[in-house]
Specification:
The protein has a single domain (about 5-95, about 140-345), classed as Alpha-Beta Complex (Nucleoside Triphosphate Pyrophosphohydrolase), CATH 3.90.79. The model is unreliable at about 1-5 and about 180-190 (pLDDT under 50). Strands 4-1-8-7-12 form a five-stranded mixed beta sheet, with helices on one face. Strands 13-14-15-16 form a four-stranded antiparallel beta sheet. A three-stranded antiparallel beta sheet has the order 3-2-9. α5 (about 205-215) packs across α6 (about 220-230). The protein is built from nine helices and 16 strands. By secondary structure, it is α+β, with helices and mostly antiparallel strands. Helices cover about 25% and strands about 20% of the residues. The longest helix has 16 residues, at about 250-265. The protein starts with 20 loop residues before the first strand and ends in a 7-residue tail after the last helix. It comes from Lepidopterella palustris CBS 459.81. Pfam families: NUDIX. Keywords: Hydrolase, Magnesium, Manganese, Metal-binding. Its cofactor is Mg(2+); Mn(2+). This is Nudix hydrolase domain-containing protein.
């Protein structure tokens, strides 16, 4: 089992860091453009007590061949990463990101009891995920996953992962409805895994998740906070309370189009071409010098420009994001007071990223 300490920077990290384990994670976007987060239990195997996107480690028995540690494909999007993303989402939330083999539409023909039985069987290793899904008449919707950065855990942390992040947009509603129920839209209904790893699963607008984190009511680690910050200006922007009218399908589609345009636009920073969101590889790097003094004692500043030693050693030019840094305070229970800042607002003008 793990604790927050497994994901908190060590004062005396090992000279030879443990290799990062391949994993996948998905930002599942609801039909009303809200984002699914799961609340991990205190004894969870990773990110204990935090709110996270569904995801987990690759498993060869379910996901196929995993690139070797020295392979150039180890830290890149690939079929095994995509299958793991869909399988872990199913195991952890019950949401099946699959298509009907006959119609090509979202696979919803399976009943709740049958789906839960399969979920437990796959999680328990009693049946292969692809074999179970094929028998039921579905195929994993791997082609609908949109790569959305990769994160490599820093070398000064006990548990390390190389995590491929994806976006998945569930189909838009065919007609508008009138109001939210308890501040959330749950279509299809996400459910926790019975307390194995999670105690809750729900959709909320990105802005609401960020508000809860800023108030320190929930724990969000830097990757989750940063990616939600990118989504927040575009998705579910008009849903502010349980009585907010749900936007029309056309308005929801317009939100998605605006966000897609943001993802697709060429990026540059200080006159230099920047990496796309799909190709960005980020290993948060603690920056301890050249900072302005308005952040307060004990605040860590994490640069997002570094791709990590394993990726750097491949010599393929992968890099992260220079425009932003993450600021946070690492507490016993995990990161607190997390926020993102423009790099030029925090770093001295002479600092180079």
């Amino acid at each position: 089992m793990s604790s927050a300490a497994d994901h908190t920077p060590l004062k005396n990290p090992p000279k030879v860091p443990p290799p990062p384990k391949p994993s996948s994670s998905v930002l599942v976007i609801s039909p009303t453009n809200q984002i699914l987060l799961l609340h991990r239990v205190r004894t969870s195997s990773s990110f204990a007590s935090a709110h996270v996107f569904p995801g987990g480690a690759l498993a060869p028995e379910h996901d196929g061949e995993i690139p070797a540690p020295d392979s150039p494909l180890r830290h890149e999007d690939g079929e095994a990463y995509r299958l793991a993303a869909i399988r872990e989402t199913f195991e952890e939330s019950g949401i099946l990101l699959a298509k009907n083999k006959r119609t090509g539409r979202l696979f919803t023909e399976i009943g709740d009891a049958e789906r839960e039985e399969g979920r437990k069987a796959v999680h328990g290793g009693k049946v292969g995920f692809r074999e179970w899904l094929d028998e039921k008449g579905g195929v994993p919707a791997t082609d609908s996953l949109i790569p959305f950065t990769r994160w490599v855990t820093p070398t000064n942390v006990l548990k390390r992962f190389t995590t491929q992040m994806y976006l998945y947009f569930l189909p838009l509603p065919t007609s508008p409805t009138t109001a939210l129920e308890e501040d959330e839209i749950v279509i299809p209904t996400p459910t926790p895994d019975g307390g194995i790893e999670h105690t809750a699963a729900r959709f909320l607008p990105a802005s609401k998740w960020l508000s809860l984190a800023r108030a320190n009511r929930i724990i969000l680690f830097p990757p989750q906070f940063f990616l939600l910050s990118l989504l927040s200006p575009y998705l579910a922007t008009t849903i502010t309370s349980a009585t907010s009218p749900i936007p029309s399908p056309a308005a929801l589609a317009a939100e998605r189009s605006a966000f897609q345009a943001f993802l697709d636009q060429p990026r540059s920073y200080k006159g230099r071409e920047e990496v796309s969101w799909a190709d960005a590889c980020i290993s948060p790097l603690a920056l301890g010098k050249g900072l302005y003094g308005d952040l307060g004692t004990g605040t860590a500043v994490l640069g997002l420009h570094y791709a990590g030693p394993e990726v750097e050693a491949q010599g393929r030019g992968r890099r992260g994001i220079r425009e932003w840094v993450v600021v946070t305070r690492f507490k016993k229970e995990g990161p607190r007071d997390v926020d993102i800042r423009r790099a030029e607002e925090v770093l001295d003008k002479g600092a180079k990223l």
